[in-house]
């Protein structure tokens, strides 16, 4: 499928889309199958009507109309993605029904689009970048966690249980359902808080009926019998610990490894934050603003995703608002603000891609699909063929193009220290009078939100 764009002025374009005979034949086949399911013809079961009989019954024009009507929107959006148009309103289609499946067919769509903004020279921008400093407290926490994994359990049945002890208990519900020899570390949070709290001070042989609250607000009881009390004896933090809990021979080597892994994680977070700050700085410096249908559509997507995430946790929107005290209109406003910033980022990166003449080849798209298919255990060639047949590769191409634009932007801007950025932020300038609140949003190459 190919397409041509004609500028009409006032941010309106006419997109002419050329549909190949293969795509047209595919659409007619789908339309025929759908119509065969709905049309009643004596002597034939639904879905089993031969094509000549179907044509004789309802006429070829109806089949063509159904084929075009059910596929024209997809053809339009695929062509819009290929030509990098960002429609902000529904398109107005203009076409005549095809005369044959064996000849190319075309239609036109007039639509209002979001123009690519004018952006500043990004190589002049300064962006704060933090330095990775590994707090020794984090290293100590990792070492403490390792101590816990190799701790020795020593019988302490001669004294009451205390925080940190490992108890062996039997749990019996009022219905008689039992869970025997359950190991509970007091303070670990493995059992509900009420049970762990009541077990502090219990001795071997004690039985307690303990009431606790369920998630939905009701209550239940369980009888807990303490069979054994064990005390955790932690090893010293020394070379012996390194040999027992890792592949290293010395504590110094173990500490260096832990610090290195923490530093890698911090570097990744810093890089993601720096890339986000780079595109946000470009958006502000270029005064890129997004509004209209693009923002409203993105806001609906964010809101729908939020509702789905609540549903996966068994929470309704009404329950969420009641529990948090947040007003629905406040949440909608937040989603709209996030959507506006997200679209503004994409517009700015699109402008970078245009100025830098960034292009993404079919091989680049296929390499991405192949990598993801292999990671998920799917056949790469089948996945590539399926994505190409539905035209979804153009969306992936645009994603890769924007990510490449962000790579270029992050490489070209000038990094400055966080201290420099904070010092400059304190200096008053007229544009800070009405500065809007910043939001941390997704950008190409950063981690996806939930």
Brief summary:
This protein has 14 helices and eleven strands. With 450 residues, the protein is of the alpha+beta class.
Structure report:
It catalyses: [protein]-peptidylproline (omega=180) = [protein]-peptidylproline (omega=0). Residues 420-450 are annotated as: Disordered. Involved in protein export. Acts as a chaperone by maintaining the newly synthesized protein in an open conformation. Functions as a peptidyl-prolyl cis-trans isomerase. The chain has 450 residues and is an alpha+beta fold. It folds into three domains: 2-112, Trigger factor ribosome-binding domain (Alpha-Beta Plaits, 2-Layer Sandwich); 122-130 and 250-432, Orthogonal Bundle (Trigger factor, domain 2), CATH 1.10.3120; 152-233, Transcription elongation factor, GreA/GreB, C-terminal domain (Chitinase A, domain 3), CATH 3.10.50. Helix content is 50%, strand content 16%. The strands form three sheets. Strands 6, 7, 8, 9 and 10 form a five-stranded antiparallel beta sheet that branches. Strands 1-2-4-3 form a four-stranded antiparallel beta sheet. The radius of gyration is 32 Å and the shape is extended. The protein starts with a strand and ends in a 24-residue tail after the last helix. Mean pLDDT is 86; it is low at 435-443.
């Amino acid at each position: 499928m190919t397409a041509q764009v004609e500028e009409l002025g006032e941010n309106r374009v006419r997109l002419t889309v050329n549909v190949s005979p293969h795509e047209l034949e595919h659409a007619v086949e789908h339309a025929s199958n759908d119509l065969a399911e709905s049309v009643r013809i004596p002597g034939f079961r639904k879905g089993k009507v031969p094509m000549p009989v179907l044509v004789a019954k309802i006429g070829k024009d109806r089949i063509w109309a159904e084929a075009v009507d059910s596929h024209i929107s997809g053809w339009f959006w695929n062509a819009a993605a290929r030509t990098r148009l960002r429609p902000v309103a529904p398109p107005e289609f203009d076409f005549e029904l095809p005369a044959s499946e064996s000849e190319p067919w075309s239609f036109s769509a007039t639509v209002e689009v979001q123009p690519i903004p004018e952006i500043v020279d990004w190589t002049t921008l300064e962006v704060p970048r933090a330095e990775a400093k590994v707090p020794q407290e984090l290293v100590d926490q990792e070492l403490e966690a390792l101590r816990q994994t190799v701790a020795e359990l020593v019988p302490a049945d001669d004294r009451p249980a205390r925080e940190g002890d490992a108890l062996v208990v039997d749990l019996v519900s009022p219905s008689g359902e039992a869970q025997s020899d359950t190991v509970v570390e007091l303070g670990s949070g493995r059992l509900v808080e009420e049970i762990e709290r009541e077990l502090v001070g219990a001795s071997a042989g004690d039985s307690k009926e303990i009431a606790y609250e369920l998630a939905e607000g009701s209550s239940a009881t369980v009888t807990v019998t303490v069979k054994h009390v064990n005390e955790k004896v932690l090893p010293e933090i020394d070379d012996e610990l390194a040999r027992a809990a890792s592949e290293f021979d010395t504590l110094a080597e173990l500490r260096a490894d832990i610090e290195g892994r923490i530093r890698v994680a911090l570097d990744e977070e810093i890089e993601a934050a720096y890339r986000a700050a780079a595109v946000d700085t470009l958006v502000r410096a270029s005064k890129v603003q997004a509004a209209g249908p693009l923002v409203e559509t993105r806001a609906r997507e964010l809101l729908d995703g939020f509702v789905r995430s609540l549903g996966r946790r068994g929470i309704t929107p009404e329950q969420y608002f009641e529990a948090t005290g947040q007003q629905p209109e406040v949440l909608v406003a937040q989603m709209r603000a996030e959507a506006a910033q997200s679209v503004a980022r994409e517009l700015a990166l699109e402008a970078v891609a245009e100025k830098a003449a960034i292009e993404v080849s079919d091989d680049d798209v296929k390499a991405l699909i192949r990598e993801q298919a292999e990671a998920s255990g799917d056949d790469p060639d089948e996945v590539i063929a399926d994505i190409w047949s539905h035209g979804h590769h153009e969306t992936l191409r645009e994603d890769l193009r924007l990510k490449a634009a962000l790579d270029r932007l992050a490489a070209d801007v000038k990094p400055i220290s966080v201290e420099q950025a904070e010092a400059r932020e304190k200096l008053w300038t007229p544009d800070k009078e009405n500065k809007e609140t910043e939001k941390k949003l997704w950008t190409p190459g950063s981690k996806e939100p939930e």
